[in-house]
Amino acid sequence: MKLVAGLGNIGDKYVFTRHNAGFMVVDKWALDKGLSFREEKKLKCFMVKFRSGGEDIILIKPTTFMNLSGEAIRAVIDYYKIDNKDVLIIYDDLSLPLGKIRFRPDGSDGGHNGIKSLIKHLGTSNFARLKIGIGPQPPVPSETFVLQNFSKDQLPELKNVLKTSVEAVNFYFENGMQKTQNVFN
Description:
- This protein is 37% helix and 25% strand.
- The chain has helices at residues 21-32, 69-80, 113-122, 142-146, 155-184, and strands at residues 2-6, 38-40, 45-52, 55-62, 87-97, 101-104, 128-135.
């Protein structure tokens, strides 16, 4: 069983913010498959399950807000007994320009509070990630920038990167990290 967690903030006011890039990828994937998320209160997330390539896949969007994402992901991992090697976290990255994605097998939190929470709750930084570029950042504080909506002129690029990200995640599950990095990074 594979777990794919898109990070973001719940609520209408956050739907199109840069910080919700992870939510947007899993939403696109579910939409492409004609699936709908349902809330799992005890696991602190919205969830949808399906089979792909003979593999059970769970997509989640934590309802804990970004800075507490680790709580929901830990709850799902424990409930379904998922190994960390079968977890992929998708989230926004300020250091990458919009339109770029980057897979990593592990790493630090890079100042991202959602990843910081995840490392705290998992007790390790050894989990796969897909970073979605949201930069470049103008001269405003990071906290302000990530909670702003994408601009209208960025929407075509955002649409392309969401499509590419879903294709990349499917490729990753079929081909592993190294090949995926070579093709998509």
